[in-house]
Amino acid sequence: MRLYVDLSCFNRPFDDQGQERIRLETEAVFVVLTRIMEGKDTLLWSWVMSFENDKHPNPDRRDEIAVWEARAERSVSLSNKLEEHARQISELGISGLDAVHLASAEEGGRSRRPVDLRRCFGASVPAPHFGFTGAQSRGIL
Question: Is residue 121 a contact partner of residue 12, using CB atoms and an 8 Å limit?
């Protein structure tokens, strides 16, 4: 499957793992990222993901997340067609960058809707190493 993984998923391993919901969401993210690294699924990236990640206030997190762009099968660039599609989506009530993300996922030919942490619950597997050094220092990885 070609997956468009929201940037919040890439950021979840850096969050405080003391809350059960955060820990479960992190485990779910690891399941998705493992499938991508094993070649069972492929990653779709977009210019808006890079745009948002470039604005991340923590340079270590920003750099670690940026590595995933190189692992992507495809990256969706900004185009007039994409802008128009995002505008149409926003007219349906989906705001701002969310509309651009959805348009990017659709433009990129994702196999499933964008991965949303709420749909990933229930995963419980050992967390492999993905290069999240910040998360490692907190004993997450």
Answer: no
